[in-house]
Amino acid sequence: MQKQTATHQIRVLLADDHRLLREGLRAMIQSQPDMQLVGEADEGRSAVQLAEELSPDVVVMDISMPGLNGIDATRQIRTRNPGVKVVALSAHTDHRMTSGMLAAGASGYLPKHMAFEELAAAIRAVANNEVYLSPQIAGGLVDQLTNGNGTLGGNGGASRPLSPREREVLQLMAEGKATKEVAAVLHVSVKTVETHRRQMMEKLKLYSVAELTKYALREGLTTIDA
After folding, report:
1. Are 119 and 59 in contact, with CB atoms under 8 Å apart?
2. Of 1, 154, 158, 197, whose CB count within 10 A is highest?
3. Is CATH 1.10.10.10 the classification given to domain 164-218?
C-alpha cells in the first residue's frame, strides 16, 4: 500500500527567485502526502532546464524572474514537453500578465498572497488536466473580455507581436546587459542580437533602449528588481 501511494505522488518543480518564499513553499509542498518536490530553480532558464531533466508533473512558476521571465519560461517548457503543467504565481493581477501566462500554456494562475491550501488545490487540479484560476484572477479576465479591452493573445496590443527570441533579447536588454552579454547568454552572435533589436524597434515603433525598457516593464517581461 505504501508503494502505491508513492507512485501516485504529484511531482512538483518550484521556480521562484525569492529565497524566503521558495523555502516556505518548499516546506508546505513537502508536507503534502500526495506531492513530491523534485527540484527548485531561482531563475527562468534553470527552470526550463530542470523541467526537461526532471520531467515534473507540475511546475509552480513565479512570473517575475531575472534572465528569463515566467511567461517565456512557461512557453519553452510547454513547447518542449506539453505534458508538464504550469501553475503561475504572481504578485501582479494585471490582465496582461494573466493573459500572457495562459497564452504561453499555463493551466493555473494564483496571486502570491493566496493561502497555501489554494495552491495545493491548484496543483492537484492541473495535475488532473483541469484549469485553475483564483476567483480574483478569473473575475479580472471576465471583466477584460466583456468590456472589450483585449483578448487572451498576450502581445500587449503590439501591432506585430514579438517572437519568443525577441522577448528574450528584450528582457536581457531591459535588465541592463550589453549586446555582447546578451549574445553570450543566448549563445548567438552580436550581429544576431543587433538584428533582433532592430526588428523589435520596427515592430513596436520604439526607437531607443529607454523606450524598449519601458515597454518591457509595462508588459511584465521584467521588473528590474533582481
Report:
1. no
2. 154
3. yes
